[in-house]
Write a structure and sequence with these properties.
Length: 660
């Protein structure tokens, strides 16, 4: 029997973490191509989305997150995958864009929150794993992901910007520009993106129904009367279309309009270090049909569905200096979500004469949430600190449906979250931590509506996290482990004809590791490993939608103005499944074999601020599908597969330039 290379990788990473504290002092070169963003502090990954990366640079939020150890993505087509962190997805993962929450409108998750993110349009991506913060909403059983904008202050009048262009296989092309002009008193920032691709092919040359086009535009205006004050207004617009290989309809409209206002004031007094006030309004208008982006069989019905969602929210937070060694952030946040739907069915092509906007919308459900929170950091001594937080939320749900579970009724859920974490810094550059977190999550719109169970109990998760983070000399490394008990876990089932949801008790546990070693001034070796295991304790089975053991090995050669690299992604088989069960993002299909995929990359810096990168992903044109994938459906002119297969060999070339 052929030995799988993952055990070797696991042993290598364990050795790396164990020996890192004895590493020799040297200067570590920054990687030209990011193969896996690394843990920078306990349970936290911070990365620059404008930095180059391998595999092919991301065109949406989920596509970017899948390169962070612990993340997986549910494949549906060419875009709009659902991110999964440590086997948990959907509303268990809090996602915010510039401090704002955007929930899609589609009952089948054509547009998860990350579908409205073009990563390079943001300045920083921050991921905090597990229920280890209370500042950005409740229910974060998996963790919290923040796509952040932070426009730097102008000390003198000027203009700075970043532009990029990408071309690749399957007619993939991206264009992006981010330009800011301003001075000490304020700024204007404009961001524009466009990405599109045709159907891709798997390793066997079979075309996958996966073409897409997306564009977005953002305009921000900031007033900075002094170094301690910022008032910012923002407008965001985006739209597009996408073909899906996992369902009988495609997305033809993803129309989003957002408005926001932020006030940040620092150094108000010796006690009040910072005050943040934010308010936002989002409207998502989504259209899906079965005829615009695919052929329709003779005699079939023409179907169109047009859900929408309006989201309004506000947040107030203050950072307080409670003492020389104690900082606290306290505040409150509010959100309201209104969802409606209108549909149309015809037996002939008269759809072209129908104005869907003339049809009335049917009210669906309204969610209203109010939360209060406090998070404190206390420095016990120069090497030890304690971080803790507490949060309370009240959610009121009004069901305006006239049929189904809980029709024309309401529900109220009161939930809480809390965590306590101790961190210790060693002289060697090693940091250890242990934390206990608790998060509770009420049922979301998809579970109550799409899976037709309005009266589900909130989930209650208690998780223990522990680990090490090291940075020094030639080494950077981290090792983390977690164990999670989830009472009233919401388990969904989709048999193809019947959808349902119920509460069970479940448990998950796992570990992640990453390491980077600078062999010398030119060669760097990187590696990452992620493993999670879940159990359905109520039914005595495996917990559905758990990703398999996955590892990455990278080797980078860098001589300052050019670089070469190779990346191997190694995935083990997954035989712990619970077919037809899962969550709102997908259900288990069956077992999957292991596989290994190789990618190559190169980079060239013609001058300061300019970079040209190129790559070949899936070098050997392997045919494979992720374990976490949607089931392939029959689309005329395409080969149906059990899962939605991943792209075959993929070549790409990207150029970007930063200026100021």
């Amino acid at each position: 029997m052929k030995q799988h290379p993952l055990p070797v990788l696991a042993a290598t990473l364990a050795l790396a973490v164990a020996t890192a504290v004895r590493a020799e002092e040297t200067t570590r070169l920054e990687e030209v191509v990011v193969t896996a963003p690394m843990v920078s502090e306990p349970l936290t990954v911070v990365t620059d989305p404008k930095a180059p990366r391998q595999p092919v640079p991301a065109h949406d939020g989920a596509d970017y997150l899948k390169n962070i150890p612990g993340f997986s993505v549910i494949r549906k087509g060419g875009t709009d995958g659902d991110p999964v962190l440590r086997g948990l997805a959907g509303s268990r993962l809090n996602v915010q864009m510039d401090g704002q929450t955007i929930l899609g409108g589609c009952g089948g998750r054509m547009d998860p929150p990350t579908a409205y993110v073009f990563p390079e349009a943001y300045d920083r991506i921050l991921v905090r794993k597990g229920p280890q913060t209370v500042l950005h909403g409740g229910g974060n059983l998996a963790g919290t992901t923040l796509f952040e904008r932070n426009t730097k202050h102008f000390d003198a009048p000027g203009t700075r910007g970043f532009v990029s262009a990408l071309a690749g296989s399957f007619d993939r092309n991206d264009l992006m520009a981010d330009v800011t002009s301003g001075g000490p008193g304020g700024y204007v920032r404009a961001v524009a993106t466009r990405t599109d691709a045709n159907d891709y092919e798997d390793g066997d040359g079979r075309r996958v129904h996966s073409a897409y086009m997306r564009w977005s535009g953002s305009l921000l205006g900031g007033w900075t009367p002094d170094a301690n004050t910022r008032v910012e207004l923002s407008v965001d617009r985006s739209d597009g279309e996408a073909a899906y290989a996992d369902r009988s309809m495609d997305g033809t409209v993803f129309d989003r309009t957002s408005y926001g206002v932020k006030l940040e004031k620092t150094k108000l007094s010796t006690r009040v270090e910072k005050l943040e006030v934010q308010a936002f309004h989002h409207y998502v208008d989504h259209v899906m049909d079965n005829y615009s982006l695919r052929p329709i069989a003779a005699g079939s019905k023409f179907l169109l569905s047009n859900p929408d969602r309006t989201t309004e929210g506000a947040r107030l937070a203050a950072t307080l200096a409670l003492g020389p060694d104690t900082r606290a952030t306290v505040g409150a946040d509010y959100q309201e979500h209104q969802h409606t739907l209108r549909q149309w069915t015809a037996t002939d092509n008269m759809y072209s004469a129908i104005d869907v906007n003339s049809r009335p919308r049917t009210p669906d459900m309204t969610f209203e949430n109010l939360g209060v929170f406090a998070e404190v950091t206390h420095q016990l001594n120069p090497r030890d600190r304690v971080i803790g937080g507490l949060r309370f939320d009240t959610l009121d749900v009004k069901n305006e449906k006239t049929t189904g579970s809980g029709a024309l009724s309401s529900d109220t859920d009161r939930t809480k979250g809390a965590f306590l974490r101790h961190e210790h810094d060693f002289e060697s550059g090693l940091t250890s931590y242990v934390g206990l977190g608790h998060a509770e999550r009420p049922a979301d719109w998809w579970e109550r509506s799409t899976y037709n169970n309005f009266y589900l109990d909130p989930e209650k998760a208690t998780q223990l996290d522990a680990g090490l983070v090291y940075a020094g000399g030639r080494w950077r490394a981290s090792l983390s482990a977690f164990a999670n008990r989830i009472d009233d876990y919401i388990l969904t089932r989709d048999t193809g004809t019947v959808k349902s949801a119920r509460n069970i008790n479940a448990s998950t546990y796992g570990a992640e590791a990453d390491a980077s070693y600078a062999v010398n001034d030119r060669w760097t070796v990187t590696g990452a490993l992620a493993w999670v295991r879940g159990s359905n304790d109520t039914d005595g089975t495996a917990l559905a939608q758990m990703p398999p053991l996955e590892g990455r090995l990278g080797l980078q050669y860098d001589v300052k103005n050019w670089s070469l690299g190779v990346l191997a992604r190694l995935v083990a088989e997954q035989d712990r499944v619970h077919a037809t069960y899962g969550s709102i993002v997908g259900q288990d299909i069956g077992r999957t074999p292991g596989y290994t995929v190789f990618s190559l990359n190169a980079g060239w810096r013609p001058r300061k601020g300019a970079l040209v990168t190129a790559g070949v992903d899936n070098v050997f044109d392997k045919t494979y599908a992720e374990h976490l994938s949607r089931t392939g459906t029959a689309v005329a002119g395409y080969t149906q597969t059990v899962r939605v297969n991943e792209p075959g060999r993929n070549l790409w070339l990207k150029a970007n330039i930063a200026f100021d």
